[in-house]
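Duplicate of #3305? Posting structure anyway:
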């Protein structure tokens, strides 16, 4: 990892190294300079090396100070090993500044190298030291530019990783919300249907307990059977959330074949129901059959809850290769005329009809529910088996 891309701890270590370098340069000057030249050499060395302690905080300012000290050194005609500070300042500028300022700083240092060679190079040996200093200038600028590029790439990678992490978190939250909606929809369908049937059977048993005890006993047995079926359905739905729950394997998801059992429960609860399945349903996926079952269940439950005694219902299911349609109609009363109080069926709320629409939409289909022209209530749904929604259901 480069200095420019280093963290706070590494930056502290860099400052310690810069301080040690300044101390070593001062010690070298003190040990090698003549007593008469020592004050000027020490002052120039300090002016060149000490600003490096702040080169990461203010690289341009430090470069200007070091370059000015180097020019004063040239004017004073004093050769010092502390000139290496100029290359370090150039590296830091290239690592923290743009290309334009880096080129300007490199030109300044190159000009200083030219002036130094013109003054201090031995006779006839100008080219070799100038080429060596030029190579050092280019290397310092190139290394600093590479450090800046590496830091930018690392920042881009970190930003991309953070963005992907945020996206994954958002997708996980959406998946959790979708799963909660699915479970809430399943619980609504199971609980609403079975409780409605149990209430209807219990009312029938209460009315028949004195006149026909046998019918009352049969109704209560149906209540018990419906309650057990509700518990099984709830275990099966919630068992999907647990890997150690075997109940879902013992009791497969309800589908089109189980609609006859649903019709029997509805007839026992007082709603005569007829099921008509046309076409081959064996090719339908289990999730599609579950959707059909829940749509019919919800529609019949609404009929049982919102219509008077004597209402009957019909269910027509048409299966084809790419779609399945569901029509549930009943003979309930027509909606009230304009200005009259709305009935329960025309003023529904909760998850019933919206939940049915969500189930149909999961298969790229649509659902219509409302009064029929000739009286009664109708629910029509069409599921597209080859849609994108089906694939994700």
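Output from current build:
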């Amino acid at each position: 990892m480069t200095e420019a891309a280093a963290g706070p701890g590494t930056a502290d270590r860099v400052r310690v190294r810069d301080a040690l370098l300044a101390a070593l340069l001062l010690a070298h000057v003190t040990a090698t300079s003549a007593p008469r030249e020592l004050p000027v050499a020490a002052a120039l060395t300090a002016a060149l090396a000490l600003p490096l302690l702040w080169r990461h905080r203010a690289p341009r300012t430090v470069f200007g100070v070091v370059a000015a000290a180097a020019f004063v050194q040239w004017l004073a005609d004093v050769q010092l090993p502390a000139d290496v500070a100029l290359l370090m300042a150039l590296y830091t500028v290239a690592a923290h500044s743009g290309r334009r300022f880096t080129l300007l700083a490199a030109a300044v240092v190159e000009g200083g190298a030219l002036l130094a060679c013109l003054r201090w190079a031995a006779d006839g040996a100008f080219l070799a030291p100038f080429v060596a200093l030029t190579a050092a200038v280019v290397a310092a600028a190139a290394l600093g530019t590479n450090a800046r590029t590496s830091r930018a790439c690392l920042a881009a990678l970190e930003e991309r990783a953070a963005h992907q992490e945020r996206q994954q978190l958002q997708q996980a939250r959406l998946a959790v919300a979708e799963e909660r909606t699915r479970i809430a929809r399943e619980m609504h369908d199971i609980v609403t249907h079975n409780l409605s049937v149990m209430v209807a059977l219990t009312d029938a048993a209460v009315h028949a307990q004195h006149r026909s005890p046998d019918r009352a006993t049969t109704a209560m047995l149906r209540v018990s059977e419906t309650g057990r079926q509700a518990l099984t359905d709830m275990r099966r739905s919630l068992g999907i959330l647990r890997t150690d729950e075997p109940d879902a394997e013992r009791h497969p998801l309800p589908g089109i074949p189980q609609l006859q059992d649903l019709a029997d429960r509805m007839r026992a609860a007082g709603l005569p129901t007829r099921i008509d399945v046309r076409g081959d349903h064996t090719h339908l996926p289990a999730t599609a059959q579950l959707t059909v079952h829940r749509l019919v269940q919800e529609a019949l439950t609404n009929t049982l809850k919102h219509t008077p005694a004597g209402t009957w219902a019909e269910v027509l299911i048409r299966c084809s290769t790419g779609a399945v349609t569901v029509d549930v109609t009943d003979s309930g009363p027509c909606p009230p005329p304009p200005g009259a109080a709305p009935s329960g069926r025309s003023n529904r709320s909760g998850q019933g009809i919206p939940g049915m629409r969500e189930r149909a939409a999961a298969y790229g289909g649509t659902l219509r529910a409302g009064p029929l022209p000739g009286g009664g209530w109708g629910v029509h749904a069409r599921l597209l088996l080859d849609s994108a929604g089906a694939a994700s259901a």
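Confirmed duplicate; merging threads. Residues 242-249, 337-350, 388-393 have pLDDT under 50 and may be disordered. The beta strands are 273-278, 313-319, 323-330, 366-371, 377-384.
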